[in-house]
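Quick check before the chapter quiz. The format below is the same one you will see on the exam, so make sure you can read both the input and the output lines.
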Amino acid sequence: MKIEIPYGRTVLSADIPDERVGAVLNNRLHDYEPPAAADVLVEQALASPIDSPPLCELAKGKKNVVILASDHTRPVPSKAIMPAMLREIRRFNPQVKITILIATGCHRESTREELVHKFGREICEQETIAIHDCLKDSMVDYGVLPSGAPLSVNRIGAQADLLVAEGFIEPHFFAGFSGGRKSVLPGICAASTVYANHSSHMIDSPGAHSGCLQGNRIHEDMVEGARRVGLSFIVNVVCNGSKETVAAFAGDFEQAHLAGVSFLNGLCRMQVEEEAGIVITGNGGFPLDQNIYQAVKGISTADIICRRGGVIIMAAASVDGHGGDEFYHTFTSGKNADEILQDILNVPQDETRPDQWQSQILARAMVRHPVILISTQPHELVQKMGIIPADDISQAIGMADELLGRKEKIVVIPDGVGCIPALKET
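Here is the expected output.
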């Protein structure tokens, strides 16, 4: 069998004997054909909102409307979503003040060029756009969330008399799914709120993994945060592997999000008969496999179905290197994965460090499995992190066989970010 893993802007391929392939888990969303143009799907969603009055009705009589928008790191088709939302808000309220607040979370500020690419020049020149800064902006406190995290939210969003959001939904490696409530938390929260929500005991909770919302404490905190701030309405989309919009969901921030999740579940969730001795996966190619930091997402997916002691093979081009100094130094400190994990688990919630959650998830996988990384990075850099470097898939399989002392079944997950694997219940 010939397998192919997206890798940077190209594809890695290898031939594997049929008898060794336990399963190939392909995300059915990847090649899903759009039923209509993105703007048409958005207009249809706005015309039939889920568990909510239409956006134009919600905006009646309002003086200060804030639209939360994803930043440059998310492939949200804002050119299709934002004009439709602006028209709806102004339909019965043409003089309303509207602010587009970029929900950066803890990311860097979006540049002017990135905003023009995202929204188009007309919106950037004619609308009021503010960019959230989790460290510098004035915040409003909303008490303490169920996890014990303090809830502090950007004052611009907090003072809106109608707060709405755009976004997109995909599997998320510890929040279950992106979209919906994430526009508020982490989108427009203070760093202290985000770090506490991503703290070691939250990441370590049983439900904090891809495709899981029920019993996911991180998700529950996010929902409570969005409720308290008063997120009233969302327009969220689902995109295929070519970043084309294939579905849109508008309405109540909880129910519209759940409708999108249900749609995704039918395309991304798949089962295997038993745990695998070897799992080969990738991060879906560029731009999601630009560094080792991002590759943790695909590794966490493989971790779900790889038996303890089995080998994870990750193909991530990582042309930008390790992806973060704090992250890199954590794994080059001279400590092994178990020591790193224990150190992180001992960090109090209010002392959570930047990128700690990513290090925790990688260390957890490395405690359970040898991890082999196929990348463009020097072998020495990869080895310093406690990861085994390889040049191609065939070489990596040979290394895995040597580590295991035998040839075991292989499960292949070409897109580890967009797939939600699970063991079949017996």
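If your answer matched, good. The domain at 2-27+273-423 is CATH 3.90.226.30 (2-enoyl-CoA Hydratase; Chain A, domain 1).
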